[in-house]
Structure formats: C-alpha cells, structure tokens
Design a protein that fits this description.
With 432 residues, the protein is α+β, with helices and mostly antiparallel strands. The protein has two domains: 2-222, Thrombin, subunit H (Beta Barrel), CATH 2.40.10.10; 280-407, no CATH class. The chain is built from five helices and 26 strands. The protein has helices at 5-12, 53-56, 235-252, 382-395, 415-422, and strands spanning 2-4, 24-31, 34-45, 48-51, 67-69, 76-78, 81-84, 89-90, 96-97, 101-104, 130-135, 150-159, 167-170, 182-184, 189-196, 211-215, 260-262, 268-270, 280-283, 298-301, 306-313, 319-323, 331-332, 338-340, 357-364, 400-407. A hairpin with a 4-residue loop joins strand 14 (182-184) and strand 15. The radius of gyration is 24 Å and the shape is globular.
Amino acid sequence: MSTSLSQYKQHGLPDNPERFGPSLAHIITVENGQDVVLGQAWLAGPGMLITCAHVIERFANTPGALIAKFPASGNGYTIRDLKVHPKFSRASDQLVRYDAALLFVELRYPEREANPLPVQFNKTVAVHQELSAVRYPVHLGQFTTSPNPLAQIGRMLGPLRKNDSFHILHDLALAPGDSGSPIFDGQTVVALHCGDTATLPGLNLPTTSIRLALWIDALKELGIEENLVTAEHSAFWNVARGLIGFVTAFFATFLALSVWINAKHVQTWTINKPTLLPVQVVLEKPFQSYRFGDPLTMTFRVEEPCFVYALIAGADDMPTLVLPSFGEREQLTPDAPHTVSTVAGSRDPMKIGPKPLKLHVFALKSPEFPFYTSDKANKITATMLTRRIKKLAKDDPTSAWHLVMDLPSAEEIPAFVLNSEKKPAPGGQAGK
C-alpha cells in the first residue's frame, strides 16, 4: 500500500502537532546515581500530568522520588503528589486494568503557560481508523533533550473484549518507555498508551504487534475535565483551510513531485525535523538531584557529523564558552559522544550555584569558527551570538542549528544549618 505523507497528516495527526511539545514530559527517577526513564506524561490541566499507573506504581507512597522532565525546555519538576486510578488492578492473566495515574507538580515558565492537551469525552473511533501518538522517545533508556517530538502512526483495532468500553487495542509501533503517551484521533486525545500485549499470555493474541490503550473517558474518575482550547477551530477556518490546501496542492503539482512513502501502514517521522539533525544534551542526573557546589557534567550526542559549540550565559547574558576552547574546532560524530565537565580552557570543574544559567548549543556544518576575537571586548551577548547563528540558518537551513535550555541551580546551605545537622540527637551520650 502506498500512502502520501500529506494523507497521513490529514488523518492520523492533529493540526500542527509540534505545538504539543511543551506539554509532553518524561517521568524519571534516579537509580545508582543514574537517570532512569520510566515512561511518558502529558499536561491534562494546570499542574496536572497524566501517565500510566504501572509507570509510578512502586512510588505511590514516595512521589518525591519522581521527576517530570520536559524535553522541550529541559526543565525538571519533583512530583508533589499523585493519584492512581481508583479501579487500577492486575488480573490473573497479568492484564493491567485502568492503567492511569494523575501527577501533581508546581510548574514554572514556560510549562506554566503551556496548554493542556485537547481532551473530549464520549467520542467514537471506528475500527481501522488512523490514530497517532506524539511523544519524546527514550534513547537507550536515557533522558535526552531534543527540540522536536516524534509522531507514530497506526490504527484502531477495536475493543480489548466485546463488552469492554475502556480498554482498546491498536497497532502503533510504540516501544518500552512510551507508556503514558497520548493517542490522538486527528483532533483530540482519545486514549492513553499502556503497553504491548506480548507479556499477556492470557489474551492469547496471535501477534506481538498489537498494543493496549486506555480510553480517554476512563480519566473522568481522576478528575480530568474536557479541554478543547487547543483543538477548537471555527467552521469558517475549517472551510478556508480546506480551500487553501486544495489551491496550494493544485499549484504544487506543477512545481515538484509528490513525496510518497512505500511502506506498511505504520510510519514514523520527526515533526518539523531540521535539515541539520539536532544535538542531544544529557545531564548525569536529574535537575532536582543537584545541590549547591555539585560538579556539572554534560554529554553531547549528535546524529550526524557536525561542529558543536556550547556556551553558558547568566542573567547578564554574557557568554562563557564551554565547548570547545576559543579558536578551536570540535567536530562530533554519532559514534563518539563528547563529555564536558569544565569551562573551555580551564581545569576547574563547573559547579552548581544559586544563579539560574542557560546553556546555548550551536551545531554547524562549516568548520569555520563562528566567534570573533573582538566579541569579548565588544561585550557581545549570548543573544547577539544566537542572532548570528540564526542568520546562518536562515541563509542556509542545512548549515546551522541552535538549542537553549536551563541548567540546574541550587541555593547554598547556611553554615549554621550544616552545623546543626552535625549535633548529636537529644538523649545521646556526650563524649568525655
């Protein structure tokens, strides 16, 4: 079967799905000093995230051990409280029913201003209707920062059982770590991806490509309400958009060949994927785990050979080069990640302080060094450098790419607090 990419976007994906990126998160914890991504989550209301109950089940009494990390910004938030679906259970056939949980977080900018995903109850989705999941996939079990989510396309296969109104089957090719991803019908979230069926022998399904999801209406019992702010369009705009699309498509046929995908019904692509593939920045532990004075180590990974430059800027917007040393070039390749723990040209480790810092990462195709020796004397700011790089990208989209993300910060613990912690507990014996 040959299907055009535009047809997939019309039927499988909501309009402009990349706008949902700021509302998508990873749920992570720390084990043996390393980040472990447990699953996906998404904004369902102010300070409220939806994920699968099995993702957070063992943390029901210790929600503070969980962190919601938003790949779009790099911000991380400690889970303040959580609520498991009241009907959540594990059956004798290993099937997990009503696999949903509500997480409560205190958000700051930009997540505080992000729109919850569109939710509408009492909808009908036909068997074999195209569905899509939009999420930030987990790379080898590690948390990464990437500017664009991935979209996965598949079909609705029907209810899990004949009289089951809340558990459905689909064939979206989602992987371990994708549990909790929102599934769209092209307009709103209609289901919550819960996992595959390969580990459920009681279902006796003939293939491992069938996956399980929870119908969106089941979230009513968690207190989730309908939200159509990001989904509603006027009838006039729907008609106008169709006419514009028709005219554009008509003239486009005289300018270029249509792009066709000769593959199975399930397809994957990056939404608004830049020509120069993005750089992934991996921190050694979650934001909330850092304390004042902790060393800061970052690992940079690329998907294609390019020259990478990284700098840190504070409130004054004055940049400090982290990678590479001034005047040098650092070409990274996919098979050789680069780890940085000091400022460029220094032996002293980077340490966490109380002031918020931003990390700017630039990827260039050209080996030409993008900064000038006069930049420091002229007090060129990080914003000015960003404009310089963006101009390169505007002139040639294949030549440059830019990412900005927050770095962790922590207040210094006063000496009297540290001293008080060292005092013996009341009732203890004092040494002679």
